[in-house]
């Protein structure tokens, strides 16, 4: 409402907005005309008070986010012009009006107080907004630091997992390689064993075939048991040197190492040490007749088939002897017979 008092000292009071027509009223350099008296409105710089607190908040607002409330964002504050009583200072006329000088002074004081309150509210609002912004900045910095630490931990865990996976892969490949080497070695050993077995079987088959061929070739033929010999003792000779009291074979005296040969085709049934007979070989012929070769110095064949004339041992002086010779016995059904007569019956000239 407009003041009914005349202007005082050139100060013109502005009409205070009513509650229903309130828009926004903040005293500025334009709305508050410079008074000529001592009551002057402090000139605002950029809408902020020049206190250190408000300046600090302005710096934070410039660095950080926007959104600091300004005076225009605050709700309007109504400034009413109170009616002052007349204290007799240049009292008013009969209509009750105060003197112009007193009324102008009161209006200036009220306007200055209103502007001071608004500035205080603005400063408080800026301080609150600045404190909130600082809290948000610190919270954001802490959140970013926590996120960085989480990323660092995740990276370290990922690298550790990758290293563990690489180590496990290397161990698995080494184990597979070792297993492959073992498998190849086993296959090679099995192959060599198979080849050796086949070679042995082939050799045995060849020996059997050769023996069969030799038996076929010499079948029906006979050979003297040794060569370069001298008959020294005959079958039936008596003497204390024989445990039975008589000689049971035919002695062919010959130098040690002279070949002892199979008299006919047959197979070796026994070969080895035999007490008084020394080293002995028993040759069984196809008709069951056994030929004993005794006092041998060595044995060339100890098993298998042989043909007539094959060397089966060497003449020696092992066992109960007086010198190197071949003691030859012929046995049939466990009984001895005269070797000389048997050899001659086979067409041999002894």
Automatic annotation (TrEMBL):
Coiled coil: none
M23ase beta-sheet core domain mapped to chain residues: 246-339
Pfam families linked to this entry: Peptidase_M23
GO molecular function annotation: metalloendopeptidase activity
Biased composition (Basic and acidic residues): 148-161, 168-181, 189-216
CDD domains: M23_peptidase
Disordered: annotated segments: 1-48, 88-108, 144-219
PANTHER family in UniProt: MUREIN HYDROLASE ACTIVATOR ENVC, PEPTIDASE-RELATED
Protein name per its UniProtKB record: Peptidase
Biological source species: Streptomyces roseus
């Amino acid at each position: 409402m407009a003041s009914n008092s005349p202007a005082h000292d050139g100060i013109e009071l502005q009409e205070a907005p009513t509650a229903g027509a309130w828009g926004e009223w903040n005293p500025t350099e334009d709305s508050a005309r410079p008074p000529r008296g001592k009551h002057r409105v402090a000139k605002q710089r950029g809408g902020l008070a020049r206190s250190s607190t408000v300046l600090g908040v302005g710096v934070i607002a410039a660095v950080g986010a926007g959104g600091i409330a300004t005076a225009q964002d605050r709700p309007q504050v109504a400034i009413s012009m109170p009616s002052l009583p007349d204290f007799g200072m240049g009292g008013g006329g009969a209509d009750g009006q105060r003197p112009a000088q007193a009324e102008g002074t009161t209006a200036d004081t009220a306007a200055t107080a209103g502007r001071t309150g608004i500035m205080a509210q603005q400063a408080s609002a800026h301080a609150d907004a600045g404190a909130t912004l600082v809290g948000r900045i610190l919270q954001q910095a802490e959140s970013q630091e926590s996120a960085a630490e989480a990323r660092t931990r995740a990276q370290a865990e990922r690298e550790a997992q990758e290293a563990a996976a690489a180590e496990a892969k290397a161990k698995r490949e080494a184990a597979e390689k070792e297993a492959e080497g073992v498998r190849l070695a086993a296959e090679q050993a099995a192959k060599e064993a198979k080849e050796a077995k086949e070679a042995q079987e082939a050799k045995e088959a060849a020996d059997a075939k050769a023996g069969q061929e030799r038996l076929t070739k010499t079948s029906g033929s006979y050979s003297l048991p040794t060569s370069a010999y001298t008959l020294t003792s005959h079958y039936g000779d008596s003497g204390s040197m024989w445990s039975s009291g008589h000689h049971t074979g035919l002695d062919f005296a010959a130098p040690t190492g002279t070949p002892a040969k199979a008299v006919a085709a047959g197979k070796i049934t026994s070969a080895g040490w035999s007490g008084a007979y020394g080293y002995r070989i028993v040759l069984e012929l196809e008709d069951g007749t056994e030929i004993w070769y005794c006092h041998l110095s060595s044995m060339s064949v100890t098993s298998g088939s042989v043909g007539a004339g094959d060397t089966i041992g060497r003449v020696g002086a092992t066992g109960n002897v007086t010198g190197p010779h071949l003691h030859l016995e012929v046995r049939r059904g466990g009984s001895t017979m005269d070797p000389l007569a048997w050899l001659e019956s086979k067409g041999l000239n002894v």
